[in-house]
Structure formats: structure tokens, C-alpha cells
Amino acid sequence: MKSLAFHPVYFFRQPSFLFIWGVYSGTFIVANSIEATCERSNQSSFYPKFFGSSVANITLSILKDKAFAKMFADPSKPTPKPMVITSYACFASRDSMSIMASFSLPGLIAAHMRNKFEMSKGTSDTIAQLMTPVTMQIFNTPLHLLGLDLYNRKDVQMSTRRQFIVREYFKTMLARMARIFPAYGIGGVLNKNIRKKGVHLLEIECH
User: What is the rounded CA–CA span in Å between residue 177 and residue 197?
Assistant: First the structure.
């Protein structure tokens, strides 16, 4: 935060920032492109957007994590062991749940809120987009912790893993919520508004 406040140019030029920016911007670009394509063909974007943005997010996250492993590795320590397939499965499931809650579910939840509570479309869309990605962290944090534990401890009984998940759950969930809220909560609201204005400007140009 100090670097961002006093040396913003340096902060935004750092590879660590650029990799994370690439993950989120790439995911939004894929999701927006799929939604635009589905709108033009009058098809539901729920499943295409979920699968497409999940593949984009998981692929970009893996590339980012590999780069971070090299950038922040301690040269005095042995090379980190490769990721096990079970950990990959947990992380992929975790990220897919976050993507569904960020791009596909908010529209359904907003529609339900309008029907049940008689909210305006703008209000229901904003509340759903802010709350759904954050709420999903309640459910996918155990997958995150399980994936970490499977990587760090190979031969451990499930009861021991369960104790680890219970012990670390609350603080990890809060940390994940704090990370997801600006990225897909606030970011999702801004993305929706910018996209809406962009589509409106294109319609004006076409007419």
C-alpha cells in the first residue's frame, strides 16, 4: 500500500501486479466476449460464460502461479515440488465456483430479488454482483485449504486434514472475501456499467 501511494508508476510496472492484472482482465474479456456473442444470437449466456471464463481464469492463474513460484523462490532452498493432481482438482473446483458466482449466478439472483422484493433492476443487479462472489467463499474455502494440505502433507489421514481445515477456515475465508470483493464484486459492477454504456454508444453509432 505504501508503494502504491508514494510510487504508483513503480507499483503498476511490477511483474507481480501485471500478472494479477492479466488474470482478472483476461477473465473479464472472455466473459464479456461470450456474453456479447450469446446476446447477438439470442441465446442464454449462463453455461457458455461459466465454462469459458472458468477455463480462462484457471489457465491464466496457473501461468501466474508458475511465474510467481520462480519470481519469489528462495535460491538457498530446494526447488519446490511439483503440484499434485489432487491439489489441481481442488483449486480448479474452487476457482470454477468463484467464476460461477461472479459471472453467471448474479443475473439469476438479481432476477429473483426483483420478483420477491420488488427491487429495481439497477439495485438488484448491484447487490447481487457485490454479494454473490463474496458469499461463495463460504463454500469453496474448504477446497482451497484441502488443496494446500494435499500439496504440503502427502501421507495424512482425512481426520487430520479436517482438523487443519477447521482450524484455518475462518481467517482464510475472510482473507479470500477481502480479495474477491474488489476483484469480482466492485470490479463486476464497474464491468457491467462500462459494458452497458459501451453497448449503448455502439447502438447510437449504428443508427
Answer: 28
User: At 113, is the pLDDT very low, low, confident or very high (cuts 50, 70, 90)?
Assistant: very high
Output the pLDDT for position 77. Answer: 77
Residue 23 contacts residue 60 (beta carbons within 8 Å): yes
Buried b (16+ CB within 10 A) or exposed e, 58-73: bebbbebeeeeeeeee
pTM of the model: 0.89
CB environment 108-133: b (16+ within 10 A), e (fewer): ebbeebbeeeebeeeebbbbbbbebb
Work out the pLDDT band at 130, boundaries 50, 70, 90: very high
Q: How far, in Å, CA of 24 to CA of 102, rounded?
A: 12
Domain boundary assignment for the chain = 2-206
- Start-to-end Cα distance in the chain: 46
Nearest to 131 by CA among 195, 53, 190, 184: 184
What does the pLDDT look like over 17-32, one tens digit per residue? 999 999 999 999 999 9
Q: Is the dihedral of CA 175, 11, 99, 180 positive or negative?
A: positive
**CB-CB neighbours of 35 under 10 Å:** 20
Question: CA–CA separation, 180 vs 190, rounded Å?
Answer: 14
How many Å is the maximal CA-CA distance in the chain? Answer: 65
The dihedral over CA atoms of 43, 46, 47, 53, expressed in degrees to the nearest 10, equals: 110
For range 50-79, the mean pLDDT: 87
